[in-house]
């Protein structure tokens, strides 16, 4: 759940990673499941939320965790569930974090976030509320398992904004959601949200029980085209629309997600789990990312020592940071060392191990150019526990679905975290290329010449706009 972009629209988020954060493994962002209790019945819930964990942290333990976050340098805390507000001391936890100067947000389905509960959160220091909205009313209510949940979610957005809280929306994208995104944008614009995060539904927990709700890998092109088409309309409505960390990577639209800054290189930088991100479960289990499978990725428990102790031990050993060997298509990919196979959660959920992620736009386009595509087929259910995964087969076939002969898997390639790959943007095809590349491997263009021409055209545009603004008396164009 790395850089979700739901804190500060059109600006620098508190979780924005600096060179020091990366170098010193500062847990800039913590996502904390305060309780697993939930009043929705989401058919795609990876944690199978509903009932509280039998050994939730006490209030005293929870407040000590907040103090540890502050000591470690955490700048942003997102409280989740279940539904975080179903825990009685949720506002005490928010107030403690706010007292340390930590920016606190809430992620919710919104079903029973009453005016009194909302105000209590605001009074405690809640700065941001993200509401899950997975499509228009009928689809959302079906996915969330409760009639009226869509209307409740939209109502919370309006009430929170009226209360002075920054509002955002998270949308899980499945096969039925793609076509509804333009109409959903209109709804969210009227609600006055600042940020909209698009994620794909991951094969975990309840979602494994509904494989028809999972995208096929080859549908990633439809997703990316739709998100790219909505980027400017969303921006015009004051909404920063961004794909989550399990949507991407490195296709021709990647440059659009550069935090709305005129930056030549602000691309996806790999999984941040256990490096600048901590996930906490309600019983004190520590993971590098809140979405990862507990059985395979838990790195300790705060009851075995403080959060500080668990983190410092893990940061030194890398125990909380998935460090997969890259295999399959990801092992030989042009972007392998920059991307690291994208979202660990997504890859592990589908294939049972990280390091090979079929939900990649660059990969989909490359395979299509070769007349191929990939499809997943469910082989085994997920277990009853939270964050459990099933088993899927990844099938490669022709574009019309005809089978292809199986090929020998390529040897695994280690992910080199000590030598990050730096990328530039080719201004001919808008694809990222290795820094220092002279001829673009995708469009054949002269990368330095295209960059110089782009810079010249941008400078000329700025001069024209500044002249126009001066004539109109409205000041200079922001640099």
Which terms would index this structure?
479 residues, alpha/beta, ten-stranded mixed β-sheet, two-stranded antiparallel sheet, 15 helices, 16 strands, 16% strand, globular, disordered N terminus
Structural commentary:
The chain is α/β, with parallel strands linked by helices. The two termini are 31 Å apart. The chain is globular, with a radius of gyration of 22 Å. The chain has 15 helices and 16 strands. α2 runs parallel beside α3 and α7 (181-191) runs parallel beside α8 (220-236). It has a 10-stranded mixed beta sheet. It has helices at residues 19-24, 59-72, 90-99, 115-124, 137-144, 149-162, 181-191, 220-236, 294-297, 307-317, 328-331, 336-339, 344-351, 361-369, 447-472, and strands spanning 29-33, 76-80, 103-108, 128-132, 166-173, 195-200, 240-243, 277-280, 285-287, 298-301, 325-326, 372-380, 391-398, 413-414, 423-425, 432-434.
Q: Strand share of the residues?
A: 15-25%
How many beta-strand elements?
A: 16
The gyration radius over C-alpha positions equals: 22 Å
Order of strands in the sheet with most strands: 7-6-5-4-3-2-1-8-9-10
Overall mean pLDDT: 89
Described by the principal axes of the CA atoms, the overall outline is: globular
Distance between the termini: 31 Å
Into which percent range does the helicity of residues fall?
25-40%
- Main pleated sheet: 10 strands, mixed
Contiguous uncertain segments of 5+ residues: 1-11, 260-265
Quickly count the helices. Answer: 15
Alpha-beta content class:
alpha/beta
């Amino acid at each position: 759940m790395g850089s979700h972009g739901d804190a500060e629209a059109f600006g620098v988020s508190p979780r924005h990673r600096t060179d020091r954060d990366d170098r010193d493994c500062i847990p800039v962002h913590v996502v904390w499941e305060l309780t697993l209790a939930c009043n929705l019945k989401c058919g795609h819930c990876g944690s199978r939320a509903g009932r509280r964990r039998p050994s939730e942290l006490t209030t005293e333990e929870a407040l000590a965790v907040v103090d540890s976050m502050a000591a470690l340098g955490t700048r942003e805390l997102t409280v989740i569930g279940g539904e975080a507000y179903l825990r009685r001391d949720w506002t005490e936890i928010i107030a403690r974090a706010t007292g340390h100067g930590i920016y606190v947000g809430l992620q919710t389905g919104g079903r029973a976030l009453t005016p009194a509960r909302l105000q209590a959160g605001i009074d405690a220091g809640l700065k941001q509320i993200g509401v899950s909205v997975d499509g228009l009313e009928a689809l959302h209510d079906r996915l969330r398992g409760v009639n009226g949940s869509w209307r409740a979610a939209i109502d919370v957005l309006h009430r929170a904004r009226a209360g002075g809280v920054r509002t955002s929306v998270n949308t899980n994208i499945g096969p039925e959601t793609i076509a509804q995104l333009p109409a959903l944008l209109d709804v969210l614009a009227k609600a006055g949200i600042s940020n909209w995060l698009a994620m794909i539904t991951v094969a975990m927990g309840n979602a494994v029980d509904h494989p028809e709700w999972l995208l096929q890998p080859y549908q990633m092109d439809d997703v990316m085209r739709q998100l790219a088409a909505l980027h400017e309309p969303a921006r015009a409505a004051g909404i920063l629309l961004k794909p989550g960390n399990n949507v991407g990577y490195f296709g021709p639209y990647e440059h659009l997600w550069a935090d709305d800054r005129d930056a030549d290189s602000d691309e996806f930088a790999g999984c941040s789990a256990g490096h600048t991100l901590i996930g906490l479960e309600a019983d004190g289990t520590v993971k590098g990312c809140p979405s990862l499978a507990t059985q395979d990725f838990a790195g300790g428990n705060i009851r075995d020592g403080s959060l500080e102790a668990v983190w410092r031990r893990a940061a030194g050993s890398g125990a909380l940071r998935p460090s997969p060997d890259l295999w399959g298509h990801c092992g030989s990919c042009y972007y392998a060392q920059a991307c690291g196979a994208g979202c660990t959660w997504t890859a592990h959920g589908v294939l049972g191990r990280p390091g090979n992620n079929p939900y990649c736009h660059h990969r989909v386009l490359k395979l299509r150019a070769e007349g191929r595509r990939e499809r997943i087929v469910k082989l085994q259910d997920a277990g009853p526990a939270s964050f459990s995964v099933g088993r899927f087969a990844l099938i490669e076939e022709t574009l019309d679905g005809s089978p292809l002969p199986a090929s020998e898997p390529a040897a695994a390639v280690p992910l080199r975290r000590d030598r990050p790959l730096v990328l530039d943007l080719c201004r001919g095809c808008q694809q990222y290329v290795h820094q220092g590349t002279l001829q673009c491997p995708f469009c054949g263009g002269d990368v330095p010449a295209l960059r110089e021409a782009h810079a010249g055209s941008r400078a000329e545009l700025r001069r024209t706009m500044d002249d126009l603004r001066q004539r109109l008396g409205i000041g200079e164009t922001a640099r």
